[in-house]
Amino acid sequence: MNDVANRVAVAASTPDVFGAQLETWRLRIEAALESRLPPATAVPARLHEAMRYSVLGGGKRIRPALLFATARTLGLTEDQVEAAACAIELVHVYSLVHDDLPAMDDDDLRRGRPTCHKAFDEATAILVGDALQPLAFQLLARDPALPPSPAIRLRLVDLLSEASGTFGMAGGQAIDLGVQGRQVDIAQIEDMHARKTGAIIRASVLMAAECVPGLDPKAHAALNDFATAIGLAFQIQDDLLDVLGDVSTLGKATGADRERDKPTHPAIIGIEASQERVHLLHGQALAALELFGERAAPLRALADWLLSRRY
């Protein structure tokens, strides 16, 4: 039994059943990403080393977990969606590498160690993002384990590109940079979060749904409602952790939003009201899953974990 299989077996035997499942998924995606990244020794070696440093440097792997949990809810196996889970994590990591750059958030620490541009250099960090993004779409186009239907492959590409573009993550980041130091209302903040964070989380859920040919439109709509609510709740929780968390637990600096004068839920409506908003969105997310009955247990457990996390 190899090292990854050993650790998966240990995780599966722990009393915390869902915690064990999360660890199993995390180990699975680590191994899947490692196998799909170029070897560090291949030319250009420095770029490939930096890609591996950034992608394999830890992290909760929440987006792949959401994709796997949705697949389980819909009767799919992890094998059938693993490449899509890798693709969405590659896009997420590329966004972190670029967000950490001095021209953006200028962060020195990510996942408990130096950010890519600190460990390597700024030019290499830019190229890491430039390389991870097309690799994600290459997986969706070529990976043999995904559904062979060209229509499904095209829909997966469309979902991830929309979630990454100006109406998704990139647009949200642009809005975020533009509103720092300005007074905005909660509706504007929630629109920004729906793009910057929520769009990729929504894509994580809906990409699994697209791998089920002929899925009932009501089921698709319910998953969309779940993902929309949980995506916003996740970002508010993240903003709360920036205020209430500590660097040793989070693996990144805290208080950064306040230092940059970023408009966030805690800054505008306060901590207690932000916590209440998270609770309300959590309820909406769970209500959206009622259609699936007990089949949605993995998604319910993941929603509970996401919104009670401390890191």
Q: How do the SSEs run, as a string of H and E?
A: HHHHHEEHHHHHHHHHHH
Average of pLDDT? 89
Query: By helix and strand content, what is the structural category?
Result: mainly alpha
Number of strands: 2
* Count of individual helical segments: 16
Q: Domain count, please report it.
A: 1
Order of neighbouring strands in the sheet with most strands: 1-2
Shape: globular
CATH class type:
Mainly Alpha
Main β sheet profile: 2 strands, antiparallel
Beta fraction of the residues? Answer: under 5%
* CATH fold annotation: Farnesyl Diphosphate Synthase
The CATH architecture comes to Orthogonal Bundle
Helix content: over 70%
Could you characterize the architecture of this molecule?
- This protein has helices spanning 3-12, 17-36, 45-55, 62-73, 78-99, 116-119, 122-142, 150-164, 169-179, 186-210, 217-244, 247-250, 256-259, 265-269, 271-288, 297-306, and strands at 109-110, 113-114.
- The chain has one domain: Orthogonal Bundle (Farnesyl Diphosphate Synthase).
- The chain is built from 16 helices and 2 strands.
- Residues 1-15 have low confidence and may be disordered.
- By secondary structure, the chain is an all-alpha fold.
- It has a two-stranded antiparallel sheet.
